[in-house]
Amino acid sequence: MTTVKLVQGANAILGEGPLWCERSASLYWIDIKRTALYRYTPGHGQTGFWLLPELAGCVASVDDGRLLVALKSGLHLFDPGHGTLERLADAAHARPSLRYNDGAVDARGRFWVGTMADDGDGPGDLHCFEQARASRVAVAGFACANGMGWSPDGTTMYVTDSGRRTIFAYDFDVEAARLSNARPFVTFGDARGVPDGLAVDAEGGVWSAIWDGWRLHRHAPDGALDAVVEMPVQRPTSIAFGGADRATLFVTSASVNVSADGLLRGPLAGSLFEVRPGVAGLEQHCVARAWLGEAAEAAPR
């Protein structure tokens, strides 16, 4: 039986976006509703906390030590050493009711990020930022674009649409940054919860945090469910491999709108957890300084 360990009792409203940073040997994660960014360092506990000016959907590593932060109004650069935030690009989404949600960096250092409606006002899209100020809609019409990742060989991209309770798979052309051959990878029935955050391990297993499901799923490359990790909270939200050996799976969670019964059964809602699932994760790609353009000149020395 896989052991789930509490590592930070944060009582987050909507914990999300865990990101392992190899440069600092730390995990960054956000509480969307509190507009807060946390840093957790194994062996030391919480080593950073910053309030952001607005809702943030996700963060990504830049290869110079800064973070790319997808705020509702656009992409920003955050310097953890100085606590400074610099606007990089205005939001690419078309409607003010949308915000950035989950995102990831591909093997060429491009940033991919989904959008969703906070108020249910229509669908969102999957955006690809070829460079910091040059984005395009890669796939339109997601009900709620969420966790994403790539197969170990980089030829398949997985994108979660939580609104459709489906993880989609696409053929991925890494050189052209193009997706094709969309097909359902896993579809969840009503009684199984909703797929949220996603991570891929070194064996090609696709992990999904199951919102309202009290668990994590691992699906084999053919989509078959081959492992379940029971969680002590109703709403695990997102997952990321990290640690020195990339073999620790960090799990964020939410307390938002959890019923009294759910809180009684899962009083650690909103906490950060870790799991040792017996398999390592993939290398975490960084946004390259060249991708930043002019902003690269302001990089910390």
TrEMBL record:
It comes from the Bacteria. The keyword Zinc applies. The keyword Iron does not apply. Residues 14-255 form the SMP-30/Gluconolactonase/LRE-like region domain. Substrate binds at R99, N101, D119. The active site is at D196 (proton donor/acceptor). GO terms for molecular function: calcium ion binding; gluconolactonase activity. It holds the Pfam family SGL. Binds 1 divalent metal cation per subunit. InterPro entries: 6-blade_b-propeller_TolB-like, SGL, SMP-30. A divalent metal cation binds at E16, N146, D196. Transmembrane segments: none annotated. One of its GO terms (biological process) is L-ascorbic acid biosynthetic process. Its cofactor is Zn(2+). Keywords: Metal-binding, Zinc. Belongs to the SMP-30/CGR1 family. This is Gluconolactonase,Gluconolactonase,SMP-30/Gluconolaconase/LRE-lik e region. The lineage of its organism: Bacteria, Pseudomonadati, Pseudomonadota, Betaproteobacteria, Burkholderiales.
